[in-house]
Design a protein that fits this description.
α1 runs antiparallel to α2. The chain is an alpha+beta fold. The termini are far apart. The protein has a three-stranded antiparallel sheet with strand order 3-2-5. The protein has a three-stranded antiparallel sheet with strand order 6-7-8. A two-stranded antiparallel ribbon has the order 1-4. The protein folds into four domains: about 90 residues, no CATH class; about 100 residues, Tetrahydropterin Synthase, Chain A, CATH 3.30.479; about 45 residues; about 60 residues, no CATH class. The radius of gyration is 44 Å and the shape is elongated. It contains ten helices and eight strands. Helix content is about 55%, strand content about 20%.
């Protein structure tokens, strides 16, 4: 994907820029020529004034705050001009390029590129760069913006070819830093510095996406079972510690049994199954009988209250 180019060359057919100062010079020459023609009825002098105005209007140039103009004098570099108003010698000096020094964003991509584990991927990225040396950008490379774009694409393909799919998906920050370093090394001789590189998207084949989804689901299920087993182990240790405490303190065990019996029987229609060994060892027979008699007396009282006389 070709980036937007912010350098224009007057020698390649681009029209010179018209500015206010040049327009004022031409207008002044035209007014002066008209006044002389009315005063003298001579055509030669007004025509000379207009011709001089056309020549002089090419001298003033205006560069924006973020621009630098590259000036050649008879084909030889004489310096950079701007920002603001500057003057050149007509027909001798030539502004060959206007270099934009603002940060430029360039989108680039690597399509159907194989990773080190032979997986075809499509990667989209964005490059943030700027021109820090206008002279080198204008003189060392023909089209610095296009060169930066191609350097970014080749560097991205190079990194993808040396990286596995897992590293590409999980280690984006490391890959972006490495990509920035490679592009910066290639573009620094052109007077261009890379601010940052950000990967926007990594597209993998649909069949591989399904396989990775199943693998991730299996890994989550495995982790859930491991967590459940650890929870069971912790519960068993807790029961073991509780059993040791109750073994040394039978009174606490009886109180716990009574609490469990109370919590179970206070619910309406509750049914509790208690091992006979627990009834014998903890003396719960009397408690269970009393609880049963209480339940029966309550049920009899409700029936007597409901029976009509």
């Amino acid at each position: 994907m070709a980036p937007v180019i912010f350098a224009s060359s007057e020698g390649s057919g681009v029209r010179p820029r018209l500015n206010v100062v040049a327009a004022a010079i031409l207008l002044t020459a035209a007014v002066a020529a008209a006044l002389f023609w009315r005063a003298t009825n001579d055509v030669v002098l007004p025509a000379t004034i207009v011709a001089a105005g056309l020549v002089l209007m090419q001298a003033p140039r205006v560069a924006q705050q973020w621009e630098r103009a590259v000036v050649l004098r008879l084909g030889r570099f004489v310096g950079l001009r701007g920002p603001g108003l500057f003057w050149v010698v007509p027909f001798v000096d030539r502004v060959t390029a206007w270099i934009d020094q603002r940060t430029v964003t360039t989108s680039f991509a690597a399509e159907q590129t194989l990773t080190s584990d032979t997986v075809p991927v499509n990667v989209d990225a964005v490059l943030f760069w700027m021109v820090h040396d206008v002279k080198r950008a204008a003189l060392e490379v023909q089209d610095y913006a296009q060169a930066v774009s191609w350097a970014a694409q080749t560097a991205l393909r190079d990194i993808i070819g040396r990286t596995t799919l897992t590293e590409l998906l999980r280690g984006r920050e490391h890959i972006e830093a490495e990509l920035q370093r490679l592009i910066d090394e290639r573009s620094n001789p052109w007077g261009v510095t890379v601010s940052s590189v950000e990967m926007r998207d990594v597209v993998i084949p649909g069949a591989l996406q399904d396989a990775m989804s199943r693998e991730a689901q299996a890994a989550r299920e495995k982790q859930a079972r491991i967590i459940l087993g650890q929870a069971e182990l912790e519960i068993a240790h807790s029961f073991q510690e509780a059993a040791r405490s109750y073994q040394d303190n039978p009174t606490a065990l009886h109180l716990r049994a009574m609490n469990m019996l109370y919590e179970g029987l206070k619910e309406k229609g509750a049914l509790m199954l208690i091992p006979s060994s627990a009834v014998e060892s903890m003396g719960m027979g009397g408690m269970l009988g009393a609880a049963a008699m209480r339940q029966a007396s309550l049920a009899g009282g409700r029936e007597a209250f409901a029976k009509p006389e």
